[in-house]
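Follow-up to my post from last week.
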Amino acid sequence: MIDQTRLPAELVYLRIRDVRALWTAIQTLQVRGAPAIGIAAALGIVIAAQNAAPASTAKLAAAVEAAADYLATSRPTAVNLFWALDRMRRVAAASQALLPAVFLDRLAAEALRIRDEDVAMCKAMGRHGATLLRDGDTVLTHCNAGGLATSGYGTALAPIYTALEQGKRISVYADETRPLLQGARLTAWELMEAGVDVTLICDSMAAHVMKTRGISAVMVGADRIAANGDTANKVGTYGVATLAAAHAIPFYVLAPSSTFDFSLKEGSQIPIEERGSDEITHSFGRPHAPKGVKTFCPAFDVTPARLITAIVCEKGVLRPPYETSLKKAVAPTGDNSSPNPPIITRGK
Amino acid sequence: MIDQTRLPAELVYLRIRDVRALWTAIQTLQVRGAPAIGIAAALGIVIAAQNAAPASTAKLAAAVEAAADYLATSRPTAVNLFWALDRMRRVAAASQALLPAVFLDRLAAEALRIRDEDVAMCKAMGRHGATLLRDGDTVLTHCNAGGLATSGYGTALAPIYTALEQGKRISVYADETRPLLQGARLTAWELMEAGVDVTLICDSMAAHVMKTRGISAVMVGADRIAANGDTANKVGTYGVATLAAAHAIPFYVLAPSSTFDFSLKEGSQIPIEERGSDEITHSFGRPHAPKGVKTFCPAFDVTPARLITAIVCEKGVLRPPYETSLKKAVAPTGDNSSPNPPIITRGK
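User reply:
Got it. Predicted complex:
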């Protein structure tokens, strides 16, 4: 996978061969973006089992459990991580009676299925989200919820890519997204690579841009969405949503239904990761703040549902009240649904 | 004066000996902060006249005019620059009949008077502003409107210093203030030097901090205030004001009355400086954004008067409607007022 910490200076691919290296890659944001973290974790479970082989199926299953417990400690906020690990655990549990080689095949198939589903979900989100964009629109986005955050088109950027394929002209303002500059390093990079008209701004300029530059819509991703629609995403999203409401600009969250967490009634229950002060006080390892300064560095914030115009998932454009629209979107409807909502399985 | 671009790594004093060096110091933000720019420009006029001597008074006066025209091109938004240059021009015009040495003395006295008035105005703003703070309050500020931005206590930080002297316990959250990190480099530094409990955050975290950390008030400076109270200040201020309103947190602007510009009816008439894209795309000279990325880099934004709870100047705490309260604050009231409002002269 691409080492996202090296972009945009260098395009470097990482080869991950053990679970410890994967844990570090997730923790240090070499791979980031909620869907991409989930896919990486699922593949990490396969690596754990492969590294334990040859051994009995019971031993492989134990290795899977240990790896899942370990990888679950890498980052706390994005629910896709736990969702993907749970899917892998369930496949392992259901495969205990199989030969070791078949057990491994089942795990690999599930991990690749998670990846393929992600590609399909991104395309579906792009299709649904593009209905919200007209020719000539200008979208403001925060952080990176593009192809780099997924294995496909991305979530927040998927409607932009789809709209462009449909011949619509779409411009983008990208918040640089302090402290780690995912907007400057990743979003600007991938949109420029795709030939999209993108303008980079500092996060603090978003309000002025909304007032003076004709923003048609805000589109962002999500790391976890509570049952009532409250949405955890990269810190700064809540501020952007508040500013969008003040300027009567629609605010859209784009995320696969694997991001929905029905075990949480509202956003205040979502754990918010705090990261090290170096992310605020240093650039390229050099300090730009006084030595020993106290910092507060939440990696995420929670946008209340009332500020969200719509949540776009692979099932469609969901509108308030989200208590009902989110549940309805993931309810079993027949041939292509999982028996265990909120997990959506596809292509079976 | 302190080279503010070297802080907090190094405390370096600049010796400015010619007008060109001063123009560069203002343009490159070695000296920044609206009041400090005005004082520096006034002293620059003295330098220009000193460097032209020995010569006739007419020649010195011509040097003053040329230097004032030149320094006025260094930065466009802070009105204190033009205000200070106009004061120096008027003293020069009124001193044309004097001997060269006396002409020089008059100029130097006026420049030092501008500086001394600034010290007194900062103290007065601190006294008035401290009435808005209670023991245990937490203030959020944006950019640097502290001692470094003035020749005294600062503007936005003056009430904090005064409240602390009064024995109140005040904590501060400082927005780092991208792109040039004046909050991280300057505000955090000077508050730490003064022993104030300060926590540094990224600009994008202000909304989350307002929601979760009990912010009592926002205090910011200003670069220009139109007749209706619309206020230009460091980019991001308008966003912070919008967020403060959404969280029912009082939003205070602190600025000397020299910041009032009654020639402008409203904020949309204030010229907004745009700066180079390197400020967004590079850190310490190293790029962190893709090469050639398009940027938009306004240095200021305009906060509409309706979002401002009060404007604190050296005359007191001014409340809406600002059309009347601003004018009233600078109206001639007798012994200590200038005959030419909005210019306040003191200590005569």
